[in-house]
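Lab notebook, design round three. We kept the backbone fixed and only want residue identities now. Task for the bench partner: fill in a sequence for the structure below.
Input structure tokens:
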């Protein structure tokens, strides 16, 4: 005899399940269309020119915010929570980064992804090596960057994600999100959805002149 005392979904016939599944599918499609609408609205956000000359510590020395683009048009920064007094990064942020797979699609679509934390570079490099990560990671220890983007305060460190856009040598801030706004951004498409150019596919509702190509090409 099977023991059904544990918590479980209602048990029904196959026909009853199919009716319920088709109802849920309608709601899932509504959610997808709503997500597309929000992404289209995000691509139309205005942007703000960066006036400060932020400098970060990287493996090759001091680098500017513009240098983090690595010559590409868009830059996605994950604000990794790492207290300068600690030798280890935030467990939640660590799990978040570990969820990423191959992010080469970002580079193919003119977008760079990097991490920034306020802990000193020596601690970031040691933790990066321990985790086996290849993602570029920079220290904002001697700049106002973390404070200006609301991930450091007198009460401690936080996490979030910010997006930047480059025109020539000028850099612009286009988007930031925090807390639960970050938790589902664990693949290339989700990250691209936070950028001005989006996925750059022709199914998207984007302003005229935005780069686009056939979907899934």
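Proposed sequence:
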């Amino acid at each position: 005899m099977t023991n059904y005392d544990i918590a479980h979904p209602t048990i029904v016939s196959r026909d009853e399940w199919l009716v319920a599944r088709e109802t849920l599918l309608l709601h899932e499609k509504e959610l997808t269309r709503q997500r597309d609408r929000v992404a289209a609205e995000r691509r139309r956000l205005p942007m703000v020119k960066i006036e400060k000359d932020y400098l970060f510590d990287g493996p090759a020395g001091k680098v500017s915010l513009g240098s983090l683009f690595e010559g590409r048009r868009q830059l996605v920064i994950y604000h990794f929570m790492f207290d300068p007094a600690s030798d280890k990064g935030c467990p939640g942020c660590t799990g978040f980064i570990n969820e990423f797979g191959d992010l080469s699609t970002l580079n193919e679509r003119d977008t760079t992804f990097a991490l920034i934390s306020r802990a000193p570079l020596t601690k970031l490099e040691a933790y990066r090596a321990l985790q086996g990560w290849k993602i570029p990671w920079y220290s904002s220890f001697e700049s106002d960057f973390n404070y200006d983007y609301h991930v450091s305060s007198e009460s401690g460190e936080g996490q979030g994600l910010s997006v930047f856009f480059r025109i020539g040598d000028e850099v612009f801030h286009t988007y930031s999100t925090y807390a639960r706004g970050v938790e589902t951004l664990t693949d290339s498409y989700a990250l691209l959805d936070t950028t001005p150019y989006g996925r750059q596919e022709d199914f998207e509702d984007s302003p005229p002149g935005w780069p686009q190509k056939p979907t899934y090409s």
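Keep this in mind before ordering anything: Residues 14-43 form the longest helix (30 residues).
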